[in-house]
Design a protein that fits this description.
59% of the residues lie in helices and 16% in strands. The chain has 8 helices and 4 strands; from the N terminus they run H-H-H-H-H-H-E-H-E-E-E-H. The protein has 2 domains: 95 residues, N-terminal domain of the delta subunit of the F1F0-ATP synthase (Peroxidase, domain 1), CATH 1.10.520; 74 residues, 2-Layer Sandwich (hypothetical protein PF0899 fold), CATH 3.30.2320. Strand 1, helix 7 and strand 2 form a beta-alpha-beta unit. The model has no long low-confidence stretch (mean pLDDT 86). It is elongated. The chain has 176 residues and is an alpha+beta fold. A 4-stranded mixed β-sheet has the order 2-1-3-4, sandwiched between helices.
Length: 176
């Protein structure tokens, strides 16, 4: 999921800590992001009846870092009522690191199962053509066909059964 707020906070975090300290920030945010899978945790974070100071001490107790900039960043998120942005900030930070390492996500949407050999072939061929490193994520889609999307460089291609059928029909009708 993408959020303009999370992008701004991610940029501010990277500007503050620098690229060399980004691993520790990623580990901290990853720990906190995984906590958002728990309903009780989400309730505590979003509850208006729990004081900000208690939320802050609770969050800081969960992380294992001594870096004052990361702790201050979490305090800032708490102060601005943006603790719920932590999973999005983590995702943005991960994208930032991948882009700086020239790695991009190849999302393969399909209505059927594509075996790992075919996924690897698609990944390798697309990597060669684009001159970047790719990692694959597979997602299911309802329409029959295949859609490839490389996040970060906005490359998209698709082959959909309905689109092919319509194009073939139009081509045949134009011939007569």
């Amino acid at each position: 999921m993408f959020s303009m707020v999370s992008r701004k906070y991610t940029k501010a975090l990277v500007d503050s800590i620098g690229f060399q300290n980004i691993k520790e920030a990623m580990n901290t945010l990853k720990t906190l992001s995984s906590c958002f899978n728990d309903e009780k945790f989400k309730y505590i974070i979003s509850s208006p009846t729990i004081k900000k100071e208690k939320k802050e001490s609770f969050i800081i107790s969960l992380i294992d870092t001594e870096d004052k900039k990361i702790i201050n960043f979490i305090k800032l998120l708490n102060c601005k009522n943006r603790l719920n942005e932590i999973p999005f900030i983590y995702n943005e930070l991960q994208k930032y690191v991948n882009i700086n390492n020239n790695e991009y996500e190849l999302v393969i949407y399909s209505s059927f199962d594509i075996d790992t050999n075919d996924q690897e072939y698609i990944k390798n061929e697309l990597s060669k053509r684009l001159g970047v490193s790719l990692y694959v994520t597979k997602k299911h889609m309802e329409m029959e066909g295949v859609r490839l999307f490389v996040d970060g460089i906005s490359v998209e291609t698709s082959f959909l059964k309905n689109g092919f059928s319509n194009s073939l029909k139009n081509y045949i009708l134009k011939a007569f």
